Amino acid sequence: MLKQYYLSSLAILTICAGSLVALSAQAAEPAVISDYSQASWGEDQRTVWQVIVRWNRAFAENDVERYFEFIDQNITVLTPGNPYRVEGIIDDRNEFEFGLSTGRSEVGFFQMMQPLIRVFGDMAIVTYFSRGYYGSDNGNILYFKETDVLALQDGNWKIVHIHLSE
């Protein structure tokens, strides 16, 4: 159902403005984008991007508790593999845990490319392209476009909407 949504929610390799930072699901260190690749970003953009990277890292490590620390209670999610919109953290968590229980969310490879971050006060929009392979289909690369909308709540950025498309 939401397999493709969760496939986008990983960060094992990050490409940003020609700079590559390789990560794996087993790596202990979180993703860090080089200063060069963020040279034109403001502090707010760098902060929002690090939230997205940490969120994707939690997914890559199948860390349900940490993953949902970044998700707002009223999240909405749209994905190409789902005939309906997921509304609320309870349904989102059920989908996430179902994907883990079936093994379909297992990460073989993932890259986020060409991130674009726009911050508008207490709201942010992050778009990027991703590619990777997952579950038992290791080697068959899938390509996606993702938009994540975040809201600043009590000093923390929370993801309030995700839209994934092929």
In short:
The protein is α+β, with helices and mostly antiparallel strands and 166 residues long. It has four helices and eight strands. It has a single domain, classed as Nuclear Transport Factor 2, Chain: A.
Ordered list of secondary-structure elements with their pairings:
Layout: H1 3-8, E1 13-16, E2 19-22, H2 43-60, H3 64-68, E3 71-78, E4 86-87, H4 89-102, E5 107-120, E6 123-134, E7 142-153, E8 156-165
Parallel strand pairs: 1-5, 3-8
Antiparallel strand pairs: 1-2, 3-4, 5-6, 6-7, 7-8
List keywords for this structure.
166 residues, alpha+beta, Nuclear Transport Factor 2, Chain: A, 8 strands, globular, disordered N terminus
